[in-house]
């Protein structure tokens, strides 16, 4: 369980996507997200999700984990968007279905689809990086590129925050159940059990933060001298050219989108 918390969303697979330099995957995800939100029409988000992200997930052998996250996070939100926007979209005039005072409008469905497609593309691009990049690899590559140690630590700790909190919460729940605490049942029972679960979680997180700060200082975290790393992250000339090409293509598409408007 601790190892899962340390690795965050990383999925160990043997694929060429995993072997790419972290900066290459970050540039790719950044370009996808920029194009996703700049183009006003839904077709760009659909092309990016189906034509780019889906093949990359299959190439990296992470289709299953990414799909599970999408179903757990995006599907409920998308269903909520379709219901609310379809029924109550303020600028909707074309009625597709009506029952009494409730009416589903075409404009609301289109807006809900656009928003959902953008969310799928954005979350998919971030998952593409997180599921194929080990935190230590990302940290080593950022440090090698002279990125501020403080910024590097913030990025890595943020990626690991949710998995670590989930693992700690599961441990606390199991421990409290072993002591006889009723964590299941009706609404009142769950509210009653909430305080004994939250207090150890908060205190444990604060203690872990202090221990981590002491460990970082012991390892000369703020030292300005050059540091060595046991993790060697390869970066080929081809990948450098690919990153430049991705940024050039993104800029050209943005210029084209601005002209076509």
Automatic annotation (TrEMBL):
Its membrane topology: Multi-pass membrane protein
Gene Ontology annotations for the cellular component aspect, listed alphabetically: plasma membrane
Protein species of origin: Ktedonosporobacter rubrisoli
Transmembrane segments: 42-62, 69-89, 109-130, 242-260
Domain of life: Bacteria
Annotated protein name in UniProt: Energy-coupling factor transporter transmembrane protein EcfT
Compartments (UniProt record): Membrane
CDD domains documented for this protein: EcfT
Entry keywords, A to Z: Cell membrane, Membrane, Transmembrane, Transmembrane helix
Pfam families in alphabetical order: CbiQ (PF02361)
InterPro entries per UniProt: ABC/ECF_trnsptr_transmembrane, ECF_transporter_component
Principal localisation: membrane
PANTHER family: SLL0384 PROTEIN (PTHR34857:SF2)
